[in-house]
Amino acid sequence: MLNYRQLHYFWVVAKTGSIVRACEQLNLTPQTISGQISLLEQTYNVELFRRVGRQLELTEAGRQALPYAEQMFQLGGELELMLRAQPNEQQILFRVGVADVVPKSIVYRLIAPTMELSEPLRITCREDKLERLLADLAIQRLDLVISDSPMPSHLDIKGYSQKLGECGISFFATAELAAQYGQDFPRSLHGAPLLIPGAETVVRSRLQRWFAEQQIQPQIVGEFDDSALMQAFGQSGSGIFIGPSVIAEEVKRQYGVELIGQTDAVSESFYAISVERKVKHPGIVAITEGARRELFTGL
C-alpha cells in the first residue's frame, strides 16, 4: 500500500527544488527526508530523482508521478480546509465552477440569489476552462458549472444542462468614441475600433456572422477571453466593446461608458451544468429560479 508520508516528502522536494528547502518547510533533517524517499523508490523499484551536479532533477518516473501527488495533496488540503472551516451550525458547501468566457457581472447576478437563502451556504467559486471544470464536476469536486454553452456532446461525462437564459448584445464605448461612432448604428461600426471576445466564446462566431450579413467590417483592435479585461480596455477608450444586454445599465454605471446600440440578432446564452437531472441542491435551485425570475424574465 502506498505510503502517503513518503509520497508527501517526494512532493515537497519536487515542489521546492531541493532537500534543503524541503527540510526548512517540513522542519525535518535531510537524512529523514532522503531516507523516506529512498524507501519509496525501493518499494516500487524506480528512481524518482537524479543528482546533476549539486542539484536534484526529476527522472521520467518522477515527472509522471508528480501530477498524481499534486492532485492528491491538493485534494487533501481542500478537505482539511473544509473540515476546519465547519462552524457549529453546519453550512451546506456549494462549489461552483465558472467557465472563463462568462462575463463576471453575469456570474455575480446568477449567484447572488444563493446569498439570500435561509439555509446557510458556504460558496466557493473557481474559474477555468470549461473542459477542466466538467472533469472536476464528473468526480464531484464541483456541484455546478456555469457556462455560455451546454454540455459538449463529444465529452464522455455524465451531466445535464439547464438553460438559464438568453439575451441580445449591446455595444459600449467611451463618450469620445460614442460621439464618433454612435450615429447610424449598426452601419457606424464599419471601420470602428472594436474589442471582441476570444475565439473560444460562443458569441464570437455569432457576432462575426452578423457582421458578414450586415456587410460591416470593423477594425478589430483586441481579442479577449476575459470579459472583465475587455471591459477595462474599453473603459480606457481602446475601442468599442460588447456585453450582454441584460446587464447594459450595470456596465454603463460601472465603467462610465455609453450605450451606442444593441441587437437581438446576436445572442448570448448561459447554462447551468450539473450531474443531477432533477436538481436538489438549494444553491442550484436558487440560481436557476433566480435567473428565470429576475435576470432573464422573458423565459
From TrEMBL:
GO molecular function, one term: DNA binding
Pfam families linked to this entry: HTH_1, LysR_substrate
Keywords annotated in UniProt: Activator, DNA-binding, Transcription, Transcription regulation
Protein's UniProt keywords contain DNA-binding: yes
SUPFAM superfamilies xref list: Periplasmic binding protein-like II, Winged helix' DNA-binding domain
Keyword Transcription regulation: yes
Annotated GO biological process: regulation of DNA-templated transcription initiation
Domain HTH lysR-type: from-to ranges: 2-59
Family classification: Belongs to the LysR transcriptional regulatory family.
Protein name: LysR family transcriptional regulator
Lineage: Bacteria, Pseudomonadati, Pseudomonadota, Gammaproteobacteria, Pseudomonadales
